[in-house]
Amino acid sequence: MRLFLTLGTSGHQMEPVVETIDRQLGEGRIAGTGIAQIGLCRYEPKHLAWFRFDPDLSKYYEDPRVDVVVSHGGAGSLFALLAAGCRVVAVENRAVTDRHQRDLIGSLERDGYVWWCRDPAALAEYVAIARTGRPRRYVPPQCWIADDLLEFLRHTPRTKA
């Protein structure tokens, strides 16, 4: 059993998540091992392998030893993880200026795709639930935005600058 934690490029706002998972792994409350992408966090884990940034996180979350991913609520990360079939525990970054992460995580939780951990202190419980739970399989919806844009551009008169 192995956990992967990704916090994106966020700064120290997500440090409580890193600290909690690190502590809970050290206490044995979270079974197995873990690796964390900690971004700009100042806290350096003691019980987790870690790195700051990597342009391709798929090699971590697609590792067959990884059974649960704990992620910030960024859309790019969440949808990549869901498309890869990961079991995801999502934690909102409350430092963002609007509620977009809360809205997205809430919608994905209601639809059965992720587990939303609202309190970092409860991460061990959510990781345990995610390890035995059965999330709904995510199927990306059909998207026609590129087609619509190309059609629009084909019918837009060109002007000289």
Question: What features would you describe in this structure?
Answer:
With 161 residues, the protein is α/β, with parallel strands linked by helices. It has one domain: Rossmann fold, CATH 3.40.50.2000. Helices cover 35% and strands 17% of the residues. It contains six helices and six strands; from the N terminus they run E-H-E-E-H-E-H-E-H-E-H-H. It has a six-stranded parallel β-sheet, sandwiched between helices. The longest helix is centred in the first third of the chain and has 13 residues. 34% of the residues are buried. The model has no long low-confidence stretch (mean pLDDT 93).
Characteristics of this structure?
Rossmann fold, 35% helix, 161 residues, alpha/beta, single chain, six-stranded parallel beta sheet, 6 helices
What radius of gyration results from the CA coordinates? 18 Å
Separation of termini? 60 Å
Overall mean pLDDT score?
A: 93
Provide the spatial order of strands within the biggest beta sheet.
3-2-1-4-5-6
Tally of DSSP helical segments: 6
Work out the number of β strands: 6
> What name is given to the CATH topology?
Rossmann fold
CATH superfamily: Glycogen Phosphorylase B
The backbone outline, from C-alpha atoms, is: elongated
Q: Helicity, in percent? A: 25-40%
Low confidence ranges: none
Amount of beta strand: 15-25%
What would a concise description of this structure say?
The protein is α/β, with parallel strands linked by helices and 161 residues long. The chain is built from 6 helices and 6 strands. It has one domain: 3-Layer(aba) Sandwich (Rossmann fold), CATH 3.40.50.2000.
